Amino acid sequence: MAPEPVNVKEFQELARQVLPKMYYDYYAGGAEDQNSLKDNVEAFQRIKLRPRVLIDVSRIDMSTSVLGYKISAPIMIAPTAYHQLAHPEGEVATARAAAASDTIMVLSYMSNCTVEEVASSCNAVRFYQLYVNKRRDVSAQLVQRAERNGFKAIVLTVDAPRLGRREADIRNKMVAPELKNFEGLMSTEVDIDDGSKLEAFARKTFDDSLCWEDLKWLRSVTNLPILIKGVLTHEDARKAVEAGVHGIVVSNHGARQLDHTPATISVLEEVVQAVGGKVPVIFDGGVRRGTDVFKALALGAQAVLVGRPVIYGLAAMGQNGVKSVIEMLKNELELTMALSGCPNLKHITRSHVVQAVGGKVPVLFDGAVPAGTDVLKVLPLGAPAVLLKTADWEAIFYGLAAMEQNGVKSVIEMLKNELELDMALSGCPSLKHITRSHVMTEHDRFHSKL
Ligand SMILES: Cc1cc2nc3c(=O)[nH]c(=O)nc-3n(C[C@H](O)[C@H](O)[C@H](O)COP(=O)(O)O)c2cc1C
Ligand SMILES: CCCCC(=O)C(=O)O
Question: pTM for the full model?
Answer without folding.
Answer: 0.88
